[in-house]
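pinned: reference chain
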Amino acid sequence: MKHVSILPLYEATLSSIDSSHQLFSRINDFMKYQGKPPFYEVEIVGIDKKTKLNNGLYHIHTDKTIQQIIKTDVIVIPLLCGDFRKAIIKNKKYTEWVIEQYDNHAEIVCLCVGSFFLASTGLLKNKNCAVHWAVKNEFTAMFPDINITDNTIITDENGIYTSGGGFSYLNLLLYIFEKHLGREISILASKMFEIDIERKSQNPFVIFMGQKQHGDEVVLQAQEFIEKNPADTFNVDDICNRFSIGRRTFERRFKKNTNNSIVEYIQRVKVEAAKKQLETGRKTINEIIYDIGYNDIDAFRKVFKKFTDLSPIDYRKKFAVQ
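pinned: its structure tokens
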């Protein structure tokens, strides 16, 4: 039997704590139906016997305090909301215990932006981490020594698991059940809770927001120029000439500050413009492609799929306003 400690962190969402508790507990019911003993002992483990959530909107009672848990097998770090820097400070008392448990071979299951707290412990240093696309820039600024993966919703590295994208943490829990108990149990949980087990990427849901908290004024001006002119046709040399700067130097500065090459940035802005038209407009896909400055339809389709994992027609089917 594995002991699961769900941490009721300050600024955590009640839904992520409760749903984690329900899913782990429900797995025990599945085992019972199969004539097998329970696999998880699930407890809410906190600093105090009672913790405030969402600025006092909810109170949660813990089963035990961290002082009472000498050893646990799985630590669940819930999804956080609000000010992440403030949340890190408020949850500092958990840090030493989490590190000690990990050093004692506990697995850490981190739900979405709970990764801000986990990163603050130092346990993610030089490791991969999935984060929600909307906080990627903030996370990078706070923790530059962590490798963000934005092409998957789950990472698995040395007993630390992270997930990116809101309720995609449910997919992470299915992943954990499969690792512990096999594919059959994971599929059963998927069916019972109606979670799409095949969801692997948050790319279809991403709204591109360029990293602008870098302090390089020329790079910022170039970003704003690109964003204000999504339908125009220009290349890297055009951008460099506009701002009177050498190509090699500027490409290096742009990549360093935005985590995108100039070409990628132009492509992302055009894809974002196309997505908006696909969602709300009535133009044909070819008309939209021409509108945003592409003459090669096949080339744009490849670029679009690169950033969204979908073809333009599939994107329209998925997100168009009817």
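why pinned: The radius of gyration is 23 Å. The domain at 2-203 is CATH 3.40.50.880 (Rossmann fold).
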